Amino acid sequence: MAKSEAKQPKNETPPNLFPDPPPPDEASTITEETAKAAKAASGATPVAVATAPIPAGHKREIKPVLPTDFGLMTHKVRQFSVVAPAGTLPEDIGSPELWKHVAPQLQMGSEVRVLSEDYAWVAYGIVTFQHANNVKVTVTNVTQIEDVSYDTKAIKERYVVKQRGVLKWCIVDTETGDNVFKNIPNQGKALLELDEYRATLRR
């Protein structure tokens, strides 16, 4: 009797319950930049790519003033009063030439009040640079002083004293508007000269 042959198990591969995804399509691997370049080359208008919304910006930090940076002006700032020579213009304040004789007394941050000798204008500035005799003053404000008439008596007088800018103090003929005398350095001297002039006219 022939021996029965034992059945041998077949080497079968078990079914893959988690199949690998199909290989990506080549077109899907094209980067955004490449797609834009390709469309631009073909003459097509590139499609706008949606971007994530920009988050609200952070509030700018305001740094508080430190106690060491706070104090009375008399302790923190040097302030100077200046009488500018006759003929000086407000724009001359920015020239180091104007300050060469007093530069060592100034320092960065010093404040200056500049009044023209003839009372034509007044200006304010801050020293923004100082080294040896080289000083830079930056003007922050300039005010032109209007001409003001000073009558010596309540009654109307033909000759009066007026301050006229670069002409300094003048004795003016009110009927003609002429300056009888000009370039008088101050009001007091002008009034004295006016009295002398009137006395001369009465003789």
Taken from the alpha-carbon principal axes, the silhouette is: elongated
Looking at CATH, the homologous superfamily of the domain at 74-144 is Hypothetical PUA domain-like, domain 1
Cross-sheet strand order for the largest sheet? 1-2-3-4
SSE run: HHEEEEEEEEH
Helix content: 10-25%
Radius of gyration, in Å, reads: 45 Å
CATH class of the domain at 74-144: Mainly Beta
At the fold tier of CATH, the topology name of the domain at 74-144 is Ribosomal Protein L25, Chain P
| Major sheet description | 4 strands, mixed
- How many runs of DSSP E, i.e. beta strands? 8
Structural class: alpha+beta
The CATH architecture classification of the domain at 74-144 is Beta Barrel
Distance between the termini: 180 Å
**Beta-sheet strand percentage?**
25-35%
Secondary structure tally, helices: 3
Average of pLDDT: 76
- Give unreliable regions as ranges: 26-30, 150-155
Oligomeric state as shown? single chain
